[in-house]
Amino acid sequence: MIDLYTAATPNGHKVSIALEELALPYTLKVLDLSKGEQKLPDFLVICPNGRIPAIVDRSADDFAVFESGACLIYLAEKTGQLMPTDAKGRSRVLQWLMFQMGGIGPMMGQANVFFRYFPEKIQPAIDRYQGESKRLFTVLDGHLKDHEYLAGDYSIADIANWAWVRTHRWSGVEVDDLPHLKRWLDAIRQRPAAQRGIEAPPSRINLTKDGDEAAKQFSEQARKMVEMGQKKQDKP
């Protein structure tokens, strides 16, 4: 049994999708980020960085894993699925996983902050992060022109990138001019495990669109969290 400490974010959904794909039994432990539950002492024992997601493998002496990419690798290696075991195949998956961890996630995350949550509209910052997100999407599109999935068969690399890219509209970036990326997005969206994974837990808003009242309320709450974080950083 796996305990999954998570919230309704792309990083959180990466791990719930993987657990669903692998058909591993897990217990969902949802943390309220707006209340700072990810910073409580009990959770910091599991994840010193105070971020979701994290897992605890109850079948392996309560072994804890934090960082979403590390969780995906652990689960794939534990089951022998969603990642090849040969050196080259494993490397291809890890390359595209690192592409998401070091590029797609951070760039889209910053686009979200400056486009949605930051109290001031700093257009150069918005342009910078939306532009870099679009550049990375173009890299994916070019690769997917000749590949059904990112690294051979469907893998944790696809799960990690899809969980983020599917929310591109929330970051203010469109993909209508990227047909191969759109094909890949649609194909994974049709997978039952992916559908179940993005509902564990369900988001209060639909991150694939914007403009409704729920989205506005979500943005306002996130804006307050950003402001609180700024104030803590400004303290001597």
In terms of DSSP E residues, the strand content is 5-15%
Low-pLDDT windows of residues: none
Task: Name the CATH architecture of the largest domain.
Answer: Up-down Bundle
Mean pLDDT: 91
What is the alpha-carbon Rg in Å?
Answer: 18 Å
Major sheet size, sense and barrel closure: 4 strands, mixed
InterPro entries: Glutathione-S-Trfase_C-like, Glutathione-S-Trfase_C_sf, Glutathione_S-Trfase, Glutathione_S-Trfase_N, GST_C, Thioredoxin-like_sf
Family: Belongs to the GST superfamily.
Protein name: Glutathione S-transferase
Pfam family, one: GST_C
Describe the model.
This protein is globular. The chain has helices spanning 10-22, 41-46, 68-79, 87-117, 123-144, 156-165, 179-189, 192-197, 213-234, and strands at residues 2-6, 26-30, 54-57, 63-66. The protein folds into 2 domains: 2-79, Glutaredoxin, CATH 3.40.30.10; 87-197, Glutathione S-transferase Yfyf (Class Pi), Chain A, domain 2. By secondary structure, it is an alpha+beta fold. α1 (10-22) packs antiparallel against α6, α4 (87-117) packs parallel to α6 and α5 packs across α7.
Features of the shown structure:
alpha+beta; Glutaredoxin; 9 helices; 4 strands; globular; Glutathione_S-Trfase; transferase activity
